[in-house]
Amino acid sequence: MADLALSNLKKSYGMVNVMPDINLQIEDGEFVVFVGPSGCGKSTLLRLIAGLEDATDGDIRIGGESVVNVPAADRGVAMVFQSYALYPHMTVRQNLSFGLENIRMDKAEIGRRVTEAARLLQIEQLLDRRPRQLSGGQRQRVAIGRAITRDPKIFLFDEPLSNLDAELRVLMRIEITRLHERLGNTMIYVTHDQIEAMTMADKIVVLRGGRIEQVGAPLDLYNRPCNRFVAGFIGSPRMNFVDGKIEAVEADHIVFGASELPGLRLPATNSGLTAGDAVTLGVRPEDFVLATEDAQGWPVQVSMTEQYGASSYLHCQFPDGSPLLVHEQGQSAEGRGAAIKVVPRAGHWHLFRTDSELAIETVGRRTLVSMKRGAVEGLEV
Ligand code: ADP
Ligand code: MG
What we know:
The chain is α+β, with helices and mostly antiparallel strands. It has 9 helices and 20 strands.
């Protein structure tokens, strides 16, 4: 068990600088998820921590000790790969014990650890099989079991569930979360799947282009993304974005305008905005209310309705043809071609500077967002 500190960590491959400067603190026992699009540097960062790659510069401290000059095998970390990386000619038992035999661990202790790992992962009945006699999910369990037998200070998982089918991924997700609760070790889990990140993490680290975009608890990132990238990446289906400008700044409201759309008055004070500023309004599909005819709102046309039974997705179009996705609770009465008016729920909207893509904090939004979700309906005007 140990905390992990990355300071001014840099990685280049020849002339290519893939990681300019990473600074990150991970507490002892935390379950941290690195998430970001393919190629953003998740695996590279994990491999640097594991010692499978050398850092170009900077420091990695595990439990307070710098490990940059410590070989991978002695860092006290165990990594689980997407590809499982099991030895095909060995039984499950041999796969679990091989690494420990290599470091000449006492036989009885190896036996104890293998039994315990097999029990934790419920693979006791598979110990005498070879990997090819196992399903994908069972192989991944063995790979995780092998990491457990090493009793690492930190577990590193690199997209361990990507090769499994959707149903099994959900089950394994829950199992790994339970495993973390039972073992209590620090775990770092890499995925490009923001649902895995949201459901498993104590803390999410969003990466883009080798840089950290935002670090926080899942709902913090969901409720308060610091920029348009994080806003679009966290949450599924993704947030709607409408480019426009500030038409007016009043004492406790701002008016957001976009071409051809009626201005939207949003409660906000201390936004630092002035009329004419180019901004992007972000609203999640579930954060719209269907407005009555005479209320303020955006007129859109429904182009398709997906009825899920418990809820519905309305695929809509603005007058200029650009799309807007609206998630309605229950079974929607609005079918294809319906003309509706939608308005963001009070406090459940996000504003970004169009040029820098940075989120704009406003007192109005901050106050309302901190209220219990669902406590406010409609728009305060
Ligand atoms: P992710 O795991 O997030 O998909 P990676 O960490 O594998 O991303 O890669 C991050 C970046 O580093 C990518 O641009 C990739 O092309 C580059 N990269 C990774 N490994 C090497 C390497 N051995 N040589 C050169 N570039 C590499
Ligand atoms: Mg990767």
